[in-house]
Design brief:
The protein is α/β, with parallel strands linked by helices. The protein is built from 8 helices and 6 strands; from the N terminus they run αβαβαβαβαβααβα. It has helices at 2-14, 32-41, 77-82, 98-105, 125-147, 175-200, 206-216, 254-262; strands at residues 21-25, 54-59, 84-89, 110-118, 160-165, 238-242. It has a 6-stranded mixed β-sheet, with helices on both faces. The radius of gyration is 20 Å and the shape is globular. The structure holds guanosine-5'-diphosphate. Guanosine-5'-diphosphate binds next to helix 2. Residues 26, 28-34, 47, 50, 92, 116, 165-166, 168-169, 244-247 line the site of guanosine-5'-diphosphate.
Length: 264
């Protein structure tokens, strides 16, 4: 027994602990860097256009309790440890998105994805479409990760928070409309992607074509509307919470931290 315990002890010591992490994803200008800065320093500084992914170790604010620590008391070292996590900021520019996709393909201890949306931008068609395309691709990457898994249990689930930001602006859509508009626009994205595949797949045999289409179709089959609830089947719960990082009487991102806490 002793050698086994000793081995476990040494092994444990040698295993580097990776902090739970959350990926910040979303179109450029949505407010990812602002949120990161707020969480890191409690004040929002001027942000720059990010060109490289950035992982920052942060603490869950005191007024939220990590799910894993509900039975621990503040002051317990384990409680303090459980409030630590990494926020991975990913660049939002089209060409730099592969950073985000790479992290999706090989996530280490990723507890969730925070997809930041500018709720004022999605009130207009161009902004809505850009956001919906990006979100469609992120959700499809998660779906493929799930359906492509080789273990019988399926991979660990990765929930998505849609952080509907900039609620301080009067042009911002309220969260329920952000949800509706995005679901509608994503339905259109998947329709046009499917059509693109069909057009380009003329040379494939019927069977191959069918397989390909199935793999690239987000959510359930059928021609109906896409709904975020369809992602449950592939291990992803999508939640929408409104908030604002700046403006109003200061930041209001309680809903986002509460969501983080529930996955920490
Ligand atoms: P990123 O490209 O997603 O990292 O976006 P940034 O964090 O750089 O934010 C883009 C712009 O939106 C900046 O000028 C921010 O000051 C502004 N911004 C971020 N959050 C909010 C918000 O909640 N309300 C308002 N009104 N502006 C915001």
């Amino acid at each position: 027994l002793l050698p086994i315990l000793l081995h476990q002890f040494i092994y444990r010591k040698a295993t580097p602990t990776t902090l739970p992490s959350f990926l910040l994803i979303g179109p450029s200008g949505a407010g990812k860097t602002a949120f990161l800065t707020l969480t890191e320093r409690k004040v929002v500084a001027q942000t720059h256009t990010s060109t490289a992914p950035l992982a920052i170790e942060v603490l869950l604010p005191e007024d939220h309790t990590p799910q894993s620590s509900h039975y621990r008391s503040p002051g317990d070292p384990a409680y303090e440890r459980s409030r630590r996590f990494l926020l991975n900021d990913t660049p939002g520019h089209g060409k730099l998105r592969h950073f985000a996709t790479t992290q999706l393909a090989n996530p280490t201890n990723v507890r969730g994805i925070i997809f930041v949306v500018d709720a004022a931008t999605v009130a207009e068609e161009a902004g809505l479409n850009e956001t919906a395309e990006y979100l469609h691709d992120v959700l499809l990457a998660l779906q493929k990760r799930y359906t492509g898994a080789t273990t019988s249990k399926g991979p660990k689930e990765i929930p998505v928070l849609i952080a509907a930001n900039k609620m301080d602006l009067f042009t911002a859509l309220p969260p329920h409309l952000v949800t509706q508009q995005l679901e509608k626009a994503i339905s259109e994205v998947r329709q046009s992607r499917a059509k693109g595949l069909k057009d380009s797949g003329a040379a494939l045999s019927g069977e191959e074509e069918g397989l390909d289409e199935e793999r690239e179709w987000l959510g359930e089959g059928g021609e109906g509307n896409f709904e975020f609830g369809q992602m449950e089947e592939v291990g992803t719960t999508v939640t929408v919470h409104g908030g604002h990082v700046i403006g109003g009487d200061g930041a209001d991102v309680k809903g986002w931290y509460e969501w983080i806490a529930s996955h920490l």
